Structures are given as structure tokens and as C-alpha cells.
Amino acid sequence: MKKTLFTLFAGLALAVSAQTAAAQSQAQGQNCAPRELVIKRLAEKYGESRQSIGMGQQGMVMETFASGETGSWTITVTTANGMTCLVASGQSYEILAEALPAMDTDA
Predict the structure, then answer these.
(1) Which neighbouring-strand residues pair with 19?
(2) What SS3 state is found at 85?
(3) What does the pLDDT look like over 29-81, one tens digit per residue?
(4) Of 48, 53, 59, 107, which is closest to residue 82 (Cα–Cα)?
(5) Nearest-CA neighbor of 18 among 78, 94, 93, 91?
(6) pLDDT at 1 over 60
């Protein structure tokens, strides 16, 4: 769990915009392909493997892929029909394990 805490927070922060972007990209035919092809390309070209996963609305699945060697990362959204769309990508991926802030119990 510690290993994917950062990616889950990052992925959840983008989930709403990711779902919209994925739907728009799929409608326009941009940055989307069958899931198997996307995963294969991320592994072969960028050395990325899945680091986290989360369920979105309407059966959409958000995944974060990253490479521990190069620091590259990619966030994808897969729709119910099996099409995977690239939502965001970048560099300097790090795994964090930050604790939640202390809760105020004076309420």
C-alpha cells in the first residue's frame, strides 16, 4: 500500500478530468487504442509497468504506469469497451509513503 500511495493520490486528483479527457479522446480517436497494445507499448518503449489502479464512473479504470529506472510515468483510462486512452505523462516519478495529517479531536 505504501508503494502506491502517491500514485493513488495523483491519480484520484486527475480522475474527474481523466474521465472527461478519455471520453473526448476516444470520441475524436486520439491517444486511444486497445488496452493490450497500450500496455505493450508502455513496457517496450518506456519500460513502464502498472503501479496503481482505481475504478471511476461508468466502469472506467484509471491506471498509473511508471518506470523505476527512467522515472517516466503515464496515466491511462480504460473504458468499458476495452479502449485505453492516454491522459497524462511525465518524468521524475517517485513512490512516496506519506502519513495522513493528525486529526483535530477538539470538535
Answers:
(1) none
(2) strand
(3) 569 999 999 999 999 999 999 999 999 999 999 999 999 999 999 999 999 99
(4) 59
(5) 78
(6) no
pTM of the model: 0.69
C-alpha span between 78 and 19 (Å, rounded): 9
CA–chain centroid gap for 72, Å, is 12
| Amino acid at the residue 60 | M
Site of grid cell 511525465: 90
CB 79 within 8 A of CB 60: yes
Single-letter amino acid code for the residue at 88: A
Q: Which three cell numbers stand for residue 105?
A: 479531536
Q: What is the CA radius of gyration of the chain?
A: 15
Quote the cell numbers at residue 93: 516519478
